[in-house]
């Protein structure tokens, strides 16, 4: 996809170096993305930016050299289009200073505020800044441009998504999520897939920043699928990197390493050295968690020179923190302390906020290893203060995000109903006028009008209820979908923590589900999931939540349930599943019965966020799979390890 979509690696690491904007989707006619740029040379070169930005820069340089000296006067559109391609390629490579210069040069050639090419250049120019003041200025320009565009148009929705991402950078995440959710839903309603992908990327970043990793993963998968289908290599590497970063945060280390290696290979193939370095750093961090220190050091040291050359100061310091962790683990506390003193020379003011607290914790450990107990106590106190404030802020932002997303969806649905209602009312007014003339003649006008209006109101309310159900339900099983399940689970968890009551979560995954699909067809697999949903309804309490979590995986939330009582509930469901008949020709299926494995985790283990409790349940689920399947395992607050990829 396009270079003007934000640089995902930089964004995930807390940098505001790039701006979420529209994209390019190559196709039979080299069709444009969000901004319908018509310049032939732009349409020709934009796919190359997606596939190999380094080659695109070389091609632009050659094309510019071939233009006459007076091109700025004789061919301003062509020259501006070349600057737009150039700025996009620099943006993909996270080279913000040359990106800004190219965009500024192109903007000087165009003056129509609604020109799609000018919007592309404006997007690149805004994405090259990182300070709050410059982001605010860019937002003013975006809002000014939107005021001149038809509401709900492709460019308008792309710019709304753009606004949402920029508000994420300004840490106004509630406003960002509202704007991004509106852009996402409206783009689906208006059948604008490029705007939808843009908004889904922005939502992934905003939700990730608020700790909602599961939903962030859902949205970034949409972008990955799009980029694969449209052969957007460099954007694909960014999306896969994002996926790896989310999996790392969720504790799914082996899957995270696989994704990061894939992203690194793509970045390397297109000459994106910064992208390669970011992947190296994250692989280093995961290997430290897995206590593979030699491998971790090799990966971090590979990242240092590239980050240094790119002048990414905050990232260099984060890499030094990881190297200090390795030194400490390998018995070199003095060397670790020297690194950390340099990292914290400005008390974290030049670092990404969420990386400061871990740096103080590692320095506390280094001071303690050297018997500098006063320094260790000071650093540990600072770590606890920063971590507590950050964790409290994350919980508040997550709660606010869930509320804002729900309100935005309701508002969109309400507006859709109102638009439909106005259209129906207009049509009905004509019919009623004719009907009233006839009813007056018949002498029964009053009663029939009342009956007709009552029907319209009742039908409208029914339609509105149906819209809400469809937005929150899984179409196959009728259960809450993943987004709705996450909202219900988070609300139940917050209530349980506030009232000091127990809550247990079970992650349920059907065994050998791929075998059922392969041997009997996907219709058979769908039948199993529907039957499980139907049977489960009668086995759960009124306040329990069972929702489809993805594929053949379900999430069960049990408020006021200890691990023992939750285990009994899951065992009841497991027995019910054994009775499900697989619709398959005799002798074709090798499975004797339907079984599932499950992992349980509880707030009694100390979990305080939905991501944490689900991650623990996921570890227990893996243990159940590893033990032979058709089993239930309980997480008992052990440290999250790195489970291997789960078997079907």
Any overview of this molecule?
The protein is mainly alpha-helical. Among the domains are: 234-291, no CATH class; 412-472; 482-634, Alpha-Beta Plaits (2-Layer Sandwich). The protein has helices at 8-12, 40-51, 53-66, 71-74, 76-92, 96-107, 116-127, 132-147, 154-169, 173-189, 193-209, 213-229, 233-249, 253-269, 273-289, 293-309, 313-329, 333-343, 353-369, 373-442, 445-472, 482-498, 513-520, 522-537, 563-578, 610-626; strands at residues 503-510, 545-550, 553-559, 596-602, 632-634. A five-stranded mixed sheet has the order 2-3-1-4-5. Helix 3 (53-66) packs antiparallel against helix 5 (76-92), helix 10 crosses helix 20 (373-442) and helix 23 (513-520) packs across helix 24 (522-537). The longest helix is centred in the middle third of the chain and has 70 residues, at 373-442. The chain is globular and about 80 Å long. 46% of the residues are buried.
Question: Can you describe this structure in just a few lines?
Answer:
It is built from 26 helices and 5 strands.
Which CATH class of the domain at 482-634 applies here? Answer: Alpha Beta
Largest sheet: 5 strands, mixed
Distance between the termini: 32 Å
Global morphology? globular
CATH superfamily placement of the domain at 482-634: Reverse transcriptase/Diguanylate cyclase domain
What is the helix content? 55-70%
**Main sheet: which strands, in order across?**
2-3-1-4-5
Task: Determine the strand fraction and express it as a percent band.
Answer: under 5%
Record the SSE blueprint.
Elements: H1 8-12, H2 40-51, H3 53-66, H4 71-74, H5 76-92, H6 96-107, H7 116-127, H8 132-147, H9 154-169, H10 173-189, H11 193-209, H12 213-229, H13 233-249, H14 253-269, H15 273-289, H16 293-309, H17 313-329, H18 333-343, H19 353-369, H20 373-442, H21 445-472, H22 482-498, E1 503-510, H23 513-520, H24 522-537, E2 545-550, E3 553-559, H25 563-578, E4 596-602, H26 610-626, E5 632-634
Parallel strand pairs: 4-5
Antiparallel strand pairs: 1-3, 1-4, 2-3
Helix pairs in contact: 2-3, 2-5, 3-5, 5-6, 5-7, 6-7, 7-8, 8-9, 9-10, 9-11, 10-11, 10-20, 11-12, 12-13, 13-14, 13-15, 14-15, 15-16, 15-17, 16-17, 17-18, 17-19, 18-19, 19-20, 20-21, 23-24
């Amino acid at each position: 996809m396009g270079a003007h979509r934000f640089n995902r690696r930089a964004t995930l690491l807390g940098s505001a170096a790039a701006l979420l904007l529209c994209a390019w989707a190559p196709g039979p006619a080299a069709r444009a993305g969000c901004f319908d740029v018509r310049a032939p040379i732009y349409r020709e070169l934009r796919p190359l930016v997606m596939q190999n930005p380094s080659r695109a820069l070389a091609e632009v340089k050659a094309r510019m050299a071939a233009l006459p000296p007076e091109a700025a006067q004789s061919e301003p559109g062509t020259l501006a289009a070349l600057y737009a391609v150039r700025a996009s390629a620099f943006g993909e490579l996270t080279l913000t200073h040359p990106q800004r210069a190219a965009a500024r040069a192109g903007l000087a050639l165009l003056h129509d505020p609604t020109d799609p090419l000018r919007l592309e250049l404006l997007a690149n120019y805004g994405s090259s800044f990182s300070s709050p003041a410059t982001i605010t200025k860019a937002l003013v320009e975006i809002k000014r441009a939107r005021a001149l565009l038809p509401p709900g148009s492709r460019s308008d929705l792309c710019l709304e998504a753009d606004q949402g991402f920029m508000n994420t950078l300004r840490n106004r995440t509630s406003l960002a999520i509202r704007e991004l959710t509106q852009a996402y839903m409206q783009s689906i309603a208006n059948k604008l897939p490029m705007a939808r992908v843009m908004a889904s990327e922005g939502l992934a970043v905003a939700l990730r920043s608020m700790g909602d990793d599961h939903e962030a993963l859902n949205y970034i998968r949409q972008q990955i699928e799009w980029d694969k289908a449209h052969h957007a290599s460099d954007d694909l590497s960014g999306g896969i990197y994002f996926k790896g970063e989310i999996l790392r945060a969720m504790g799914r280390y082996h899957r995270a390493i696989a994704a990061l290696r894939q992203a690194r290979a793509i970045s390397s193939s297109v000459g994106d050295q910064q992208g390669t370095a970011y992947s190296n750093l994250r692989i280093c961090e995961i290997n430290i968690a897995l206590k593979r220190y030699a491998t971790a050091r090799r990966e971090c040291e590979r990242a240092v020179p590239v980050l240094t050359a790119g002048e990414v100061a905050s990232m260099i310091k984060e890499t030094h923190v990881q190297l200090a962790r390795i030194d400490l683990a390998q018995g070199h506390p003095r060397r670790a302390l020297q690194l950390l003193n340099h990292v914290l020379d400005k008390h974290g003011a030049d670092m990404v906020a969420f990386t400061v607290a871990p740096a103080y914790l590692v320095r506390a450990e280094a001071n303690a290893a050297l018997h500098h107990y006063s320094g260790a106590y000071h650093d540990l106190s600072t770590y606890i203060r920063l971590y507590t404030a950050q964790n409290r802020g994350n919980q508040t932002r997550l709660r606010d995000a869930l509320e804002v997303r729900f309100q935005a969806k309701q508002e969109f649905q309400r507006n859709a109903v109102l638009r439909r209602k106005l259209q129906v009312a207009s049509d009905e007014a004509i019919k009623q006028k004719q009907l009233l003339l006839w009813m007056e003649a018949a002498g029964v006008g009053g009663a029939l009008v009342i009956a007709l209006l009552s029907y319209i109101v009742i039908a409208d309310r029914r339609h509105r209820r149906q819209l809400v159900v469809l937005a929150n339900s899984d179409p196959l099983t009728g259960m809450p979908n993943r987004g709705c399940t996450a909202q219900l689970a988070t609300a139940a968890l917050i209530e349980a923590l506030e009232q000091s009551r127990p809550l247990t979560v079970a992650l349920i995954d059907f065994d050998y589900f791929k075998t059922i699909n392969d041997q009997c067809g996907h219709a058979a697999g769908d039948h199993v999931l529907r039957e499980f949903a139907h049977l489960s309804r009668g086995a759960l309490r009124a306040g329990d939540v069972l929702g489809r979590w993805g594929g053949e995986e379900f999430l069960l939330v049990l408020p006021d349930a200890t691990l023992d009582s939750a285990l009994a509930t899951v065992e009841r469901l497991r027995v019910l599943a054994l009775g499900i008949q697989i619709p398959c020709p005799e002798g074709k299926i090798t499975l004797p019965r339907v079984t599932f494995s499950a992992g349980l985790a509880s707030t009694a283990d100390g979990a305080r966020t939905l991501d944490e409790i689900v991650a623990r349940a996921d570890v227990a689920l893996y243990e159940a799979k590893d033990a032979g399947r058709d089993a239930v395992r309980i997480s008992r607050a052990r440290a999250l390890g790195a489970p291997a990829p789960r078997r079907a």
